[in-house]
């Protein structure tokens, strides 16, 4: 694996844990609460990590597109199809968790993100834009790409998808995260363009954020119950 890829992974890991050091520093230096300091540092660290990663990826950008990479029209088509594929995979995984594994629906990780976004709306740029770019570069282009070069698609997609699920620190819903990671890996292979899973990932996150912001909590709960009933019917309830 090229050395720059290792530096990208290290940058991502440092970003993930940097809040343990720098959030308290912001709290001491600025007249804000510790929660606000943590949120502000999250935004700062994600932006810095994205800049560093893009700088490290300059050789890849200069190398141009892979052979037989999807055309612009194909990219649009795969992005639209990919969103439906990812939501479908997510719903099936959620149904399996709920009705076969007995896991309560709803992601604590997603709820925490939404709570933060409601408190500080600018935080939305992380799940909607920055996180999808960083995660697809790391988990699909680098991790999946390295596994895929040495194994078959299924093993590479499975390993990268599991790592993708684990890094979200929501082990209860590992299957849901892994299912989406599997779809993103498929889109990457089919189009040979990392831009496609980035767009699909960003679109999914943005849709979830908009729905959570725009729908009344009671209506959202009712919609979730109706979806659960449909999933039960689909699985033979």
List keywords for this structure.
single chain, about 240 residues, mainly alpha, 2 domains, about 80% helix, globular, disordered C terminus
Q: How would you characterize the overall build of this protein?
A:
By secondary structure, the chain is mainly α. It folds into 2 domains: 1-64, no CATH class; 68-234, no CATH class. It has 11 helices and no strands. The chain has helices at residues 3-17, 19-29, 34-56, 58-63, 72-99, 108-119, 125-150, 153-167, 174-191, 195-214, 217-234. The longest helix has 28 residues, at 72-99. The chain is globular and about 55 Å long. It starts with a helix and ends with a helix. Residues 226-237 have low confidence and may be disordered.
Strand content: under 5%
* SSE run: HHHHHHHHHHH
Mean pLDDT: 81
In terms of quaternary structure, what is this? single chain
Main pleated sheet:
none
Structural class: mainly alpha
Shape: globular
Q: How far is the N terminus from the C terminus?
A: 47 Å
State the share of residues found in helices, binned by percent. Answer: over 70%
Helical element count? 11
The number of E-state strands comes to: 0
Rg (C-alpha, Å) = 19 Å
Low-confidence stretches: 226-237
The total tally of domains equals 2
């Amino acid at each position: 694996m090229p050395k720059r890829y290792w530096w990208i992974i290290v940058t991502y890991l440092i970003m993930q844990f940097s809040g343990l050091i720098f959030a308290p520093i912001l709290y001491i230096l600025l007249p804000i609460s510790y929660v606000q300091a943590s949120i502000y540092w999250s935004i700062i660290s994600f932006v810095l990590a994205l800049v560093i990663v893009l700088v490290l990826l300059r050789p890849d950008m200069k190398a141009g597109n892979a052979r037989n990479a999807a055309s612009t029209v194909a990219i649009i088509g795969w992005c639209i199809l990919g969103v439906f594929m990812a939501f479908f995979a997510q719903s099936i995984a959620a149904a399996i968790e709920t009705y076969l594994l007995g896991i309560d629906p709803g992601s604590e990780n997603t709820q925490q993100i939404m709570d933060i976004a409601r408190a500080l709306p600018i935080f939305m740029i992380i799940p909607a834009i920055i996180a999808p770019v960083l995660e697809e570069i790391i988990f699909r282009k680098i991790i999946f790409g390295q596994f895929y070069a040495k194994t078959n698609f299924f093993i590479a997609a499975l390993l990268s998808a599991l790592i993708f699920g684990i890094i979200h620190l929501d082990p209860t819903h590992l299957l849901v995260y892994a299912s989406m990671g599997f779809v993103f890996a498929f889109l990457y292979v089919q189009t040979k363009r990392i831009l496609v899973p980035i767009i699909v990932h960003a679109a999914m996150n943005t849709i979830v954020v908009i729905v959570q912001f725009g729908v009344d909590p009671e209506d959202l709960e009712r919609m979730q119950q109706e979806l659960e009933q449909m999933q039960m019917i689909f699985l033979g309830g």
